[in-house]
């Protein structure tokens, strides 16, 4: 790892003031530190977000959910309040990495990184969540823009995510047994207005994406068999040593069905 | 440079290191506690697991500076006096190790697992929660056996007691 300077701000404002072209936010560090160890990132300074209380915690008021950016995967997976209104997201968080990774890794770090095989991008896109930053609010549709790409400007800090709890939601993941990232993961949510959102991670050549064919089919009939008649275009999917695009196209349908079956 | 103050295995320690120093380096090199191992550089093997403020964490994926002010428990802090912790004793009893390289991380992960689940651990949960710990020798069967045996011995009270 190259030399760096560590900062520990206590507020969002102070963190924002420390931001610069050469600095990076350090949340759980479960992606950034391995990347720095491999010298694939070399920020001159690190702005630790773990000691900023206003970035932490889960609040549920009626159907409105707010999760602070520095809330860990473990906290999301084990939140009783969240499990009452959206157990599908708790389930998703419980499948991220392993217990030690979940104790440190955070929702804000995961979505800011937007790894094409990460779980949270599918969850938040599937829920139609709003991403709150220290500058503005963005829909998940506008936030995730491509492989490891988001709409975040330089120095912009994700502070929280918000969403209306869906009527039902489920997540099914086919994991790479070595890395535990998704080879394909599908999050399905039926929202309060009866519309359905289907978000796919691990597969898209441009990262996380929605599948409108499945959304329409499931809005008409929220059952696994509704997915049989839909098609997944392998041309828009990734091929790598883990799985071919054609195999992933099949997995997307299989995972979507399981997500519907498991939706609660 | 970073000034680091920690409570390690109940003892207050302090030291100075570069900001980029990993917690595992600080533990091994500055504190001389070499029970915590480094088995990979990709954050995947779990040989380096310690407890930070009561939670299992990979000490190769945390800076010493991030841990400043925290309570750290390493494998050296588990036994009390001359007596092995029940988890250590169970690994010995059930042959949960061969070369022993992964063992400190396995045991720290296992103790954390029992803390969270109490005596209600089953084989499926143990296997799922060992996903971040890699063993090249044992084939895991005896590790799982040891954890289940220790969980039973530590009992359902373990979860409550730790909270
Ligand atoms: C062994 C292992 C297995 C894993 N398995 C999975 C898996 O199965 N599924 C999965 O989804 N992930 C997995 N991960 C990644 C893990 O979920 C990370 O926690 C997550 O990707 C990044 O979150 P973090 O809090 O650790 O962020 P960090 O590593 O601290 O930061 C990641 C990036 O986001 C930026 N950033 C962080 N917080 C903010 C913020 N609030 N605003 C703006 N930018 C920010 C940082 O500057 C950095 O560029 C795994 C990681 C490891 C080590
Ligand atoms: S040394 Fe920490 S996970 Fe391998
Ligand atoms: S006993 Fe040798 S690596 Fe586990």
UniProtKB/TrEMBL annotation, chain A:
Q: Where are the annotated coiled coils located?
A: none
PROSITE patterns linked = FAD_PCMH
Q: SMART domains recorded for this chain?
A: CO_deh_flav_C
Q: Which residues form the FAD-binding PCMH-type domain?
A: 1-168
Keyword Flavoprotein in the entry? The reply is yes
Record Pfam families: FAD_binding_5 (PF00941)
Q: Which UniProt keywords apply?
A: FAD, Flavoprotein, Oxidoreductase
Xref: InterPro entries:
CO_DH_flav_C, Diverse_Substr_Oxidored, FAD-bd_PCMH, Mopterin_DH_FAD-bd
Is Transcription regulation a UniProt keyword of this protein? no
PANTHER family this protein is in?
Answer: XANTHINE DEHYDROGENASE SUBUNIT C-RELATED
Q: What name is this protein filed under?
A: Xanthine dehydrogenase family protein subunit M
TrEMBL record, chain B:
Give start-end ranges for the coiled-coil region(s): none
Q: Which residues form the 2Fe-2S ferredoxin-type domain?
A: 2-78
Database matches in InterPro entries: 2Fe-2S-bd (IPR002888), 2Fe-2S_ferredoxin-type (IPR001041), Diverse_Oxidoreductases (IPR051452)
Q: Which UniProt keywords apply?
A: 2Fe-2S, Iron, Iron-sulfur, Metal-binding, Oxidoreductase
Checking Pfam families in the record gives: Fer2, Fer2_2
Q: Which CDD domains match?
A: fer2
| PROSITE patterns the UniProt entry points to | 2FE2S_FER_2
From which domain of life does this come? Bacteria
- TM regions (residue ranges): none
- Name of the molecule in the record: (2Fe-2S)-binding protein
């Amino acid at each position: 790892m190259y030399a760096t300077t560590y900062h520990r701000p206590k507020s969002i404002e102070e963190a924002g003031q420390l931001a610069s072209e050469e600095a990076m936010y350090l949340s759980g560090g479960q992606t950034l530190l391995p990347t720095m160890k491999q010298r694939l990132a070399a920020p001159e300074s690190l702005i630790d977000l773990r000691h900023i209380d206003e970035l932490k915690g889960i609040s549920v008021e009626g159907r409105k959910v707010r999760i602070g950016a520095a809330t860990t995967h473990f906290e999301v997976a084990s939140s009783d309040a969240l499990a009452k209104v959206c157990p599908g997201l708790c389930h998703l968080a419980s499948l991220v990495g392993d217990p030690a990774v979940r104790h440190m890794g955070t929702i804000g770090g995961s979505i800011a990184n937007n790894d094409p095989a990460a779980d949270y991008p599918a969850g938040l896109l599937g829920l139609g969540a709003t991403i709150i930053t220290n500058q503005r609010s963005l829909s998940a549709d506008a936030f995730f823009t491509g492989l490891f790409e988001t709409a975040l400007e330089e120095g912009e800090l994700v502070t929280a995510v918000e969403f209306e709890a869906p009527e039902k939601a489920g997540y099914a993941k086919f994991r790479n047994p070595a890395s535990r990232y998704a080879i394909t993961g599908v999050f399905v949510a039926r929202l309060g207005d009866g519309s359905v959102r289907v978000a796919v991670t691990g597969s898209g050549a441009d990262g996380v994406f929605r599948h409108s064919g499945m959304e329409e089919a499931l809005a008409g009939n929220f059952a696994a068999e509704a997915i049989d008649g839909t098609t997944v275009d392998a041309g828009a999917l990734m091929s790598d040593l883990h799985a071919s695009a054609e195999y992933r196209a099949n997995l997307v349908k299989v995972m979507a069905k399981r997500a519907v079956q498991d939706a609660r | 440079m970073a000034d680091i103050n920690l409570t390690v295995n109940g003892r207050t320690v302090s030291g100075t290191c570069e900001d980029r120093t990993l917690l595992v380096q600080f533990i091994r090199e500055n504190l001389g506690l070499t029970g915590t191992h480094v088995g990979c550089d990709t954050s995947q093997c779990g040989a380096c697991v310690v407890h930070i403020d009561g939670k299992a964490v990979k000490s190769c994926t945390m800076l010493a500076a991030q841990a400043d002010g925290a309570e750290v428990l390493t494998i050296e802090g588990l036994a009390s006096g001359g007596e092995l912790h029940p988890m250590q004793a169970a690994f010995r009893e059930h042959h949960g190790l061969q070369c022993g390289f992964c063992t400190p991380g396995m045991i720290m992960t296992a103790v954390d697992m029992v803390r969270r689940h109490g005596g209600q651990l089953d084989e499926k949960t143990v296997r799922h929660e060992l996903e971040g710990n890699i063993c090249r020798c044992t084939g895991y069967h005896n590790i799982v056996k040891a954890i289940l045996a220790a969980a039973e011995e530590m009992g359902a009270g373990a979860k409550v007691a730790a909270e």
